[in-house]
Amino acid sequence: MSKEQVYKNFIGGEWVESRTGRTFENRNPANTEELIGVFQKSDRRDVEKAVATAKKAYETWRLIPAPKRAEIIFRAAHRLVEQKEQFAREMTCEMGKVLAETRGDVQEAIDMSFYMAGEGRRMYGQTTPSELPSKFQMSMRMPLGVCAMITPWNFPMAIPSWKIMPALVCGNTVVIKPATDTPLSAINLVKTLDECGLPRGVLNLVTGSGSEVGDPLMTHPDVKVVSFTGSTDVGRAVSEACAPQFKHCHLEMGGKNVIIVMDDAKLDLAVDGAIWGGFGTTGQRCTASSRIVVHKRAYKEFIKMFVERAKKLRVGNGLNPEVEMGPSINESQLNTVQNYVKIGRKEGADLLCGGNRLTKGVYSKGWFHEPTVFGDVNRKMRIAREEIFGPVVSVIPCNSFDEAIEIGNSVDYGLSSAIYTQDVNRAFNAMRDMYTGIFYVNASTIGAEVHLPFGGTKNTGNGHREAGTAALDVFSEWKSVYIDYSGKLQRAQIDNN
Ligand code: NAD
Q1: Which domains does the chain show, CATH number per domain?
Q2: What pLDDT sits at residue 493?
């Protein structure tokens, strides 16, 4: 990667500099001396150009048959397969997660592309009988226009693909603003779609900050849908900004996910799940297992096994195949982690391992932190309620199944939950009673697949879902069509007796 590599905005099918003439740097969180590239620090003027271009392109894109639109997405899926390794490596350099996980991130974009391209020949509506003779009726999806997408850094290609692919196949055009920490992975995705023949203006990308690009984008009167993934605080601001113009607003926000470990659980399996869910992506997943509620009869043994494994995790540069956990994304996120460690100690939780920033040797140039486990946490503590977004797991003892469910549901978020048990009745009871958008039995809180709905309840979401056919509901509106071929006036509800 050249040190001077300058990346541009993508507007109207061309890579262009920002009107501001300003740029920002993107550096490797595992080694901040490594410059990934220089990106456009755009503002409102770039957003206006991009939205106007997308609005114009919508006039023709919406009329292209969906199976033809889908052919471009199919080609992009194949092209992503060819470039998977390169894109994964660039993603590890850009955001720090280990190669196995960045390959998974690109794979998710591949899966979503194939899946949504398939929708080009489905996108099912309904045909129903009419209550009147000689009358036909059906429902069909229609696109909305320009869709704005604002995305976070933790799944830098997967999340943009979850939004872009369904939006395009439905016939919308797009302006995306990726997170400032990970613009390269979004650029790689956009470049791929461009190479596969997407018409000019259908997909546009503008890089820059939330206030200078995100804000004018979501408030622009020509934007019809805003699809946002990020923190709950910013999500609330997005929701408020969309309300006056009744924009369709789709929000995927924070999480405080729970694994429940019952006394009959296979503990080896539960520990595997807790390690993967708690420390995968350095705990920076919206579905991270940041709370483990363990039945008191299994508590001691679970803690022993879990802490032993957490201590052994190899932390470092994600490009090294030996490494199991990378750095935090940036200094501010690392400070948040350190702050929560202080809070947990002050609240009286038992710091069982970790708790420190790693600064020596290979760690000296990055944002590394030890895998950290707190024991004897109670549900009222801030470390048990607030999203930390780092390698910090709280283990909470409980006395019964009912109490575990109550603790599990006691937070403001509702993304993902899991139970480890050999008792089918308990598993089904938990499945019924956990108020989360995603639920697992004998598996960790992470691991969603692209063809089922993805999203959460309470402060995690606003009722919409990403992925699966549910994603089509975000990027289309229903039109009900009635065709009367009786040749006379027929009045529904009146002439049908
Ligand atoms: P963030 O909210 O800080 O930023 C998300 C995006 O919003 C970025 O592109 C950012 O530039 C933009 N933004 C920030 N302020 C803005 C403003 N005032 N107006 C418009 N746009 C603005 O979140 P993050 O730190 O990038 O990501 C971490 C958060 O994302 C966590 O809370 C995590 O749980 C959540 N997340 C949720 C899901 C999910 O599907 N539920 C998935 C991944 C991440």
Answers
A1: 9-253+461-480 (3.40.605.10), 258-441 (3.40.309.10)
A2: 93
